[in-house]
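Sanity check record (used in CI):
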Amino acid sequence: MNILRGKSIFILSPEAWGKSFVSKHHYASLLAQKGNRVYFVNPPSDKWAKQKVAPNLWVLDYSTGWRKGVQRWPNFLRKWANAGLIRRLYQLAEAEADIVWSFDPFRFQDLRQFGADYRIYHPVDPHICPLEQAVINSAQVLFASSHKIIQRFQANGPTPMYFINHGLAQHFLAAAPKLDFSPRSGRIKVGYVGNLNYPFLDEQALLSILKQQGEVDFYFIGPYKKGNLSGRERKSLIAQLMELENCFLLGPKPSTELPAYLDHFDLFLMTYEGDKNPAAMANPHKILEYLSRGKAVISHFIDEYKERKDWVYMVEDNADLPAKFAWALANLDKINSEQLQAERKAYAQANSYLAQLQRIDAYLQEI
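Expected output for Glycosyl transferase group 1:
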């Protein structure tokens, strides 16, 4: 029996449909390809609209008509308002939900109001939301991208909870495209993907590594803003990176091009504040993308990979990151052996979005 086939599925997403795809968008696309009628509900905006973006896939925009702060409303008033919104969404879609699949704790906290046969809550990131427990209580099942999220809620109620890892997009499984990209030859090349203005980035650890390893080239892929972002007393991180001859800021790149860029690198680096906030950093999505290329990852502490320290070489205290990175350089052939590269690639491929949907379908059959 395939539950995730031939259904009307409403996906509630905190990120709008656009050019940048994250988990919600990938799941929506795959579900539509499997023959479901998928309605991707954007966060509230100033309009009501329905747009077909692919076969079997529509994006719904809606407006609440009130300002933010609905979470502070009394429960009965919030449910009354949401009931009206759901009726209008169904009218807009010209369909009702067989499955409601929420990634968003900030809206529609009582999933039972959708009248769907299956109610799923799927936090792929930790949230600070006082009403998140209400969403969980109204769901039939919770899927989470880290065991830390499950541990946070599993003692609070009977809702079944399962670990579903992040997914790997299809373009990481296919042959990488050719690029007009020529890194300097004869040097070790390190890749870093992510927003350099991310508030939980450990700038001190990152700069220590970069300055200690002047013979290694570091390539940064992702958005960044210039300016004095760290205060008036010292240069911003971006300004310091731009002054280093071994650092190259490539800016954001389309996700479909990332595999080709990552294939050029000998190591991958992550320096978030995992020692200060292990729950929030328990399972960054980009780890799977790194592992799909086979090369080793040097990182802050990541709870989900603490048993696979031969794939992700991590530290419990970020002060040890420069020493760990130096150790990795001295043991590069060992940590990038053919066997370890094959293991990393196999693990990433086993966690494709299609594979995750098959796991989710199996869990839904137990409801």
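The radius of gyration is 22 Å. If this sentence no longer matches the regenerated tokens, the check is flagged for review.
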